[in-house]
Sequence to fold (629 residues):
Amino acid sequence: MLQQMRDNAQSWVAKVIVGVIVLIFALTGWESISRFSSNEQTAAEVNGTLISKIELEQAVALQRRQLVEQLQQLNDSFDPNLIDDALLRKSVLDGLIERAVLVEGARDFDLRISEIMIDQLMLATPDFQVDGQFDANRFDIVIRNMGLGSRLAFRDLVRQELLLAQLRNGFEATAFATPGERLQLARLEEQTRDFAAIELFIQRDETTVTDEEIETYYSANAEQFMTEEQVVLEALTLSRDTFFYQVQIDELALQSLYEREIGNLTEQRRASHILIEVSGEVSEEQAQKEAEAIAARLAQGEEFAQLAEEVSDDLGTAGMGGDLGYSVRGSFDPAFDEALFALQDGEVSKPVLTSFGYHLIKLTDVTAPELPSLESMRESLVQDLKTEQVERQYVEASRELANLAYESPDLEEPARALGLEVETIGPIGRQGVEGLTSNTRVMAAAFEEDVLKDGLNSQLLELDADTSVVVRVKQHMRAQQRPLEEVSLDIADTLQFQKAVDQAREQASERVSALREGRTEPAQLAEELGKSWERHEAISRSNNEMPQTLLREVFAMPRPTDDKPVYGHVRQPDGSQWVVELRGVATPQSLEAAAQSDLYQRYISGQTGEQDFTALQESLKERADIERF
Fold:
């Protein structure tokens, strides 16, 4: 109770509490699921749970964009058309099916996620914050850009993610490693190998490609040489900002708002108090007598702050001289409030009885706000008034646009009615590029069957809190076979590279066979190639200086026997080859101390947990009723 009283005295704390309560109500009571989760067109069904084609296409578009970004970071000239959309779509659908299976499995295990946990997670998510605080408008923008039509849809997504994390953690966090497993891992990890390597480079210039080979490859891989399916879009964009220039502000309304605003500015008082608590051990009469005795000591000149530290039962403020900070009228118990606002600056009240006990109250400061003029507040007041009117007009215009788009065969009539311009965009593929088409919801809507094939206008798409759009397909360009002459050079380059790689592999294989059979000596091979063997001693698996491709091959080779080297070859990333001579393998004699490492424990238990979880996934999939459409 005392803590509550102190909190009431700090207005910013009260505002934060109110803000959180409002937020939680907003998150749990807003909107219903959008058409994003509708099941009008079904891509798959998992135990009665439907995965819509819209959901699939949106997930595919997002995955494709991420894949293109990653590949273009590795190679600026990467062509997105090389991505196999059919394979990508299958992979994404498999992922959505596996997710649905796991979510149902988590519910079968009776795992639960509280609404409070979801609220706390969203409040603490940096993407939803502005200046370190949760911002509802920012939240709406982010989830709409994700393609989720409502806050409830996002909550459901968060709930599923937490359920899946809880399910996975139930297996992975309970796995463990036996002493034998740790010792075996230590043997492998602490092992070192001595080897030598020599390179065989690919010789692209020495390979030739015939026209017949180009034609054969073209015919056998026709799906690789298709143009991207594209559309030319028409878009009608409704922006909240445009209404700000149309709204006129009445001077009377401005004056009325100004008076309301300055009316909210009120006096704040800073108080300190000494509390004598009434409890089971201290009666009201005893508390009153003690408070009167303290009042007498104050009258004799003792310091209020020192007495508060010495005798006050409010331990939260006693160490601060009884200071309660600044407050406004109505922050405290009515009797306390009335006494505080009757005091003069520096005056101490008589003992005041509240539900906590008897208080001696000292007024330590009074702040009376300086009232700003109308002109100094005009800009912000005009902004507030415009915001109210713009919100109403934007909502009405959005509703009208949605209705007109549904009723009209094109976008001309909605554009005339609302004074908007039809924008033409494209040609553009499913993945979009920039601006409006970078939004996954726009591209998903553009490739919906009723929009793409039937020529209908899309539904009204809310891109963020301030922007809505309707699109229609003006022209649909289906994927077509690219002519041979357009791609022949690319095919020739591919075949030439493949031939050079194959040739290097065959040569390496032949050299290794000769070394194994004793037909060639290592020194003789180096002389023939005009190179020298690079020798490496006591190299461990964790070596970061060696090429990892080479290192993996070296540690996959069998141990040498009878002091005879073991030979092998491995492809380099560019298609060249390493010919490898493994000369020796060494393992430390004492591994007990290393085997006790927490690193090995975590690694083995992590691997075991993942295997257990994978086994669960496979079991759930085998028992699930899955149908793809």
Observations:
- The chain has four domains: 2-179, 192-209+483-586, 230-243+381-477, 266-367.
